[in-house]
Amino acid sequence: MGAKNCPETPRQKMINMMYIVLTAMLALNVAAEVLEAFRVVDSSLLQTLEAVDIQNAQLYASFDQAYAENPTKVAEWKDKADEVKAKSKEMINFVWQLKDDMVNYSGSKPVNEDNILTEEDYFHITVAGDTVELGKVDDLNGPSEYMITQKHATELREKIAEYKAFLVSIVGEDNEELKKTVLSELKTEDPKGNIKSGTEKKSWESEHFENKPLIAVLTLLSKIQIDVKNSESNMVKYLYSEIDAGSFKFNRLGAMVLPNSNVVLMGDEYKADVILAAEDTTQQPEIIINGRAFPVKDGKATYVGNTDKPGVFKWSGLIKYKTPGGIIKSYPFEQEYQVTQPSVTMSATKMNVFYKGLDNPFEVSGGSIPSENLEVTMTNGKIVRNGNLFTINPTDLDATGKKTKVSVYAKINGDRRLIGTSDWRVKEVPDPVAQVAGISGGNIKKELLTIQDGVMAVLEDFDFEFKYTVTQFTLETTGSDGYSNPYPVKGNRFSQQQKDALKRVNINTWVNITDIKAVGDDGSTRDLDPISLKIK
To answer: Which of 267, 277, 428, 454 could form an S-S bond across to 256 if both were Cys, CB 3.0 to 4.6 Å?
Structure first.
């Protein structure tokens, strides 16, 4: 609701125009006719003030009736209207008191000295012969001293600004037009000077109250009271319209099912709210999703989310709908959905084995539950997570699998749920096999043997990234005298003495490599089986 719903009446336009003309005439000459004209305008303003007050009283009566019929619906708006009424009355009475005090300061007095002024009397305070007898209507000094020197004009300006801010604070965010109307009716900004015309820049106080005759100042204060009453009237009409602004008119009903989750595990409860949805087929809402307006059909917009990767995805939007009162209401919303990869979990029952001392890679599939919602724990070891992958490091050997249990928990609808457990065995990494030229025994050509660098420790058919390194071995050859000649060495490479001995061996004799030791990546030392090679 805005200014177009509270148009300025021809009478009000005429009064404002007369005030401007008469103020301009004062700059030339404060003639008796001009002063009398101000008195007429002031009297007319007070009559208008009383008329607007009666109109506002009717609005408040309508509020009382609506509240009696539906307290729940009306309470919020009636409370605000009552607050507007109280603030407006406080503002009007403050101006009445300014008038009274300024008239007395200028030397005027009540007709009856024993007369005590009431709020009703204030309507006639500037009318000669009723309540107050104005002593000198063209007094220029008294009003200036009282309003400017004694800072009452500044106090009035602050009161108006405070009242204006209060009214703006209770106007909804969607009604900028009404806010502009309030700010326009209750202006307190300093007027701008004009450099070209040589007009001096003045304050709001000086512009309105400095060097003005008493009757002109009283007339201006009456205009301020009219502005306050008009603002009050606009605000109360707006608040009354808000009672039914949210009472949407719908002409089609339908059922809607809202599940609590799109992912349900076996054994869990599936819950869904079933509601009656209403629709107005005569107008469509505006639906904005992720910052983009979507086409609407039958009151609904269809959102299709991306499913090119797994995870939990959030999306949000805004529904805008025009109320019967013409105000756009906004209704924000947020939703999320889960995307899971098609997967199958396979395992050989007798192969549930972890190796001590190794980083055992471990994968978990929760079916329709995203990996980020899974938690893995275990006994006899620790688990390290890296993204969606897990690494298991057992602590102790457990050949029977009685003390090593892996448990998987899932976060479902905010709850931590156990969804599965399994038992695992813990074994040592198997011993490697010592090899030379890729063999661990048997026949070998002398030429091939003599070009080898040393002895290797190999883990056969073991898929983990784990290796052993030979740290010592002894090479034994048979000499021409039939005796065995041992050549020990530290490390995994043939020494020069060993290489020279291999060159001297004869065909069909045996070369033995014994006392082989190897150290694994985990620091453990293993004794390996000897290698027996027949020279060919």
So the answer is: 277
Radius of gyration of the chain (CA): 49
Residue 96 neighbours by CB distance under 10 Å: 18
Task: Provide the token pair at 388.
Answer: 């969606």
Q: What is the pLDDT of residues 265-298, one digit of tens each?
A: 555 555 656 655 666 677 778 888 888 888 888 7
Output DSSP code: residue 490.
E
Q: Which residue has the tokens 């048979």?
A: 478
pLDDT tops 80 at residue 232: yes
398's tokens: 């457990």
In angstroms, rounded to a whole number, what is the distance separating the alpha carbons of residues 39 and 519? 115
Provide the β-strand partners of residue 256.
275
Tokens 């009431």 sit at which residue? 118
User: At 471, which helix (H) or strand (E)?
Assistant: strand 468-478
Query: Which tokens sit at 364?
Result: 């978990």
* Two domains, one topology: 349-427 and 433-535: yes
User: Number of helices and strands (H, E) in the chain?
Assistant: 10, 24
Give per-residue pLDDT as tens, 121-136.
333 344 333 344 555 6
- Alpha helices in 3-31, H assignment, sequence order: 10-26
**DSSP annotation of 123:** G
Of 329, 304, 310, the C-alpha closest to 318 is: 329
Task: Evaluate the CA torsion angle 103, 106, 109, 114 in order and state its sign.
Answer: positive
Residues 495-524 have pLDDT tens digits of 999 999 998 888 888 999 999 999 998 888
**Crossing angle of the two packed helices 176-185 and 214-245, in degrees rounded to 10:** 170
Beta bridge partner(s), residue 384: 391
Q: How far is CA 127 from CA 17, 64, 222, 304, 383, in A?
A: 21, 35, 12, 74, 93
CB 526 within 8 A of CB 468: yes
Three-state DSSP at 330 gives strand
**Cβ(52)–Cβ(229) under 8 Å?**
yes
Measured between alpha carbons, how far is 372 from 370 in angstroms, rounded to an integer? 5
**Assigned CATH for 349-427:** 2.60.40
Cα–Cα distances (Å) from 460 to 25, 433, 439, in that order, read 114, 7, 12
Q: What is the C-alpha separation between 425 and 392, in angstroms, rounded?
A: 12
Q: Which fold has domain 433-535?
A: Immunoglobulin-like (2.60.40)
Tokens 């989310």 found at:
305
Residue 186 near residue 179 (C-beta atoms within 8 A) = no
Strand 510-520, strand 525-528: pairing:
antiparallel
Residue with tokens 């992958």: 389
Contact 339, 307 (CB under 8 A): yes
Please state, in angstroms and rounded to a whole number, the distance separating the CA atoms of residues 506 and 510.
Answer: 9
